[in-house]
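idk why but the lab printer keeps eating my pages so im just putting this in chat instead. protein + fe (ii) ion:
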Amino acid sequence: MNEHAQPTTLSQRADALEEQMMHELGERIATRSTLFIMADGKVEMPNGPALKAANPDKYFLMGADPRLPKMPAKPTLIDFFNNRFASLNHLLQSATHALKGGHNEKVVLACLLHDIGVASFIRCDHGYWGAQMIEPYVDEEVSWAVRMHQALRFFADPAAGYEYPEMYIKYFGADYKPEPYIVADYERARKHKWYMTSRLICVNDIYSFDPNAKVNLDDFVDIIGRNFKQPEEGLGFDNSPSSHMWRTLMWPTRFL
Ligand SMILES: [Fe+2]
Ligand SMILES: [Fe+2]
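predcted complex ->
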């Protein structure tokens, strides 16, 4: 609530709105990035000076958000699974399906990680985001497969056992056509030596929405251990090209 004078001008009303949008946490002020606000259909960002003026005794949050699960000092992939991925079921079911199908560990890991972009970060172009996050830590084939499943999902390959998902017709309409860049990536992937690795993500993806299936992250700890190069310093602190992405996941409401 804004306990200050009733806003009268347009800019005062905007400031009051920003104050409403921010979350106050004891002595700290947590802010939402423009991207979070755009999800409400507005291109806006919190007004830093106005927030500070309205809360002169508080500092902006520049570290861990106490509302979120606590992360250890040297976080591992498993810590992100447990504390920052909104849903594990789909990933675990896909990986379990691949494991039961007798696929190699690269395929199983690709299935386990294929949607971490969605689970932790963002839906739009999730395959590309997810691939970028894991690229420094996995075999190139795994990150390539995760990246390309974004495009392959939209194209059937009956010989490989993959039909266009009925769900997509329900979700996106029968006339939905992927963007040209997706079509171009699909065509490139089709001719690539690792095509089947990415295609197997789609094949194992489509059957894995059973809410009753018993799945457990413990089943994959060894596969992660053998195939994910966990940095000693902790994910986010290892100076890799994607460290900043893991840090942002750790501290999504930091002011800067
Ligand atoms: Fe996906
Ligand atoms: Fe998926």
